[in-house]
Description:
The chain is mainly alpha-helical. The chain has helices spanning 3-20, 22-33, 37-61, 67-91, 94-123, 128-157, 159-180, 192-199, 202-222, 225-232, 237-264, 266-287, 291-320, 326-355, 359-382, 387-391, 401-407. It folds into two domains: 3-188, MFS general substrate transporter like domains (Growth Hormone, Chain: A); 194-391, Up-down Bundle (Growth Hormone, Chain: A). It contains 17 helices and no strands. It starts with a helix and ends in a 16-residue tail after the last helix.
Amino acid sequence: MSLPLLSMMLSVFSIGTAESVIAGILPRIADDLDVPLSTAGLLVSVYAAVVVVVGPLTTLATGRLPRKPLLLGMLGLFAAGNVLAALAAPASSYALLVTGRLVSAFAHSTVFAICLTSAGELAGPGGQASAGARITLGFGLAMVLGVPLGTLIGNTYGWSATFWCIAAMSLGCLALLAACLPADRRRPAGGAVSELRVLGRPRVLRAIGITVLCSAGVFTAFTYAVPLLTEVSGFGETAVTVLLLLYGFGGVAGNTLGGRAADRSLLPSLTVTLAAVVAALLLLSAAAPLAWPAAAVFVLLGLAYFGTIPGLNTIIVGSAEVGSPTLALSVNSSAFNIGIAAGGLLGGQAVQSGAGPRAAPLVGAAVVAAGLALCAYEHKTRGGVAASALTDPAPAPAGSAAAASAAAPPAPSDSLPATAAKD
């Protein structure tokens, strides 16, 4: 892996850890700041709300800025948010902690979208999904390594130490990217209007819809995976912790394999992985009373679900065609969070219906099946073209900014290579 890709992956690892580690240190935060646990839990909701609502607006507002300085600035803002969160411990200030979380979340979607777009440009046609998979691997590693380590650090040295570590890592990524990421000297051709037009394309909307349905279906089951594995499958708490870790490792493997498959044939591979998610959810419900078959299917669910993520992000880039995909990617990041929230609600209703935890995977399978049908429709309308065809730019209208850019002399050697993902 090249140093720029590694640096961007670690940046995503940092934001993924910051988003999720709060759950592991929430009881200590509530005790130290003398607030109810439910009040401390708002730190999760506030972060997610800012990512969903403010993230795309920030990306839209900064769409005309050169990407490298924007990425460095957003990483600096993210680090500052974590410093504020760390300072909330000695100040015993819940308000300061909330402010730190707000500032960090403000940069979340834009950092993720820029890293994905830049990785695709560095890779060039035919390698965008694999490059994107390396970036999204940061989120998988955050779940497998970042959250457990951050929780351990917080419980051992105090929760402020967790935020200090995240701030230090993000500043380290900033320094690495400042040194190794090629500069993008091209000024983006489009503005806010062109970015918003991208979101109005039916293909982009369908791609975002697939993302929402897939994540909602999986998290309908995953939110209630622990009661399913303990109450129905009969595993103890220690065994469930190991299974969650194995789920994460399955996700890391699935993310890598999904990126390679999407590079070879985007829509067919995405259709297959979505079908695998549906099958895994159905099998999880059926095998739940049998401990080890249920455990195996649970790990396979992680493999299948994370295998869809590179394809879901790459289809956004392809659907954006000659427009900038950065805003669409930011909205797609919000779509994952919307799906996660919706999945939690659906899972709760399924469990409370009287059918118990086994109902959650069945409901989730139905939701993902709707996403699979949407993906199959997209495959049919595009004629089953490969990923390269999806990411090659359509001809720009004569006299347009994109056409002028295409006719311009080659960029300096230190600029990002031009691809269809270009802003």
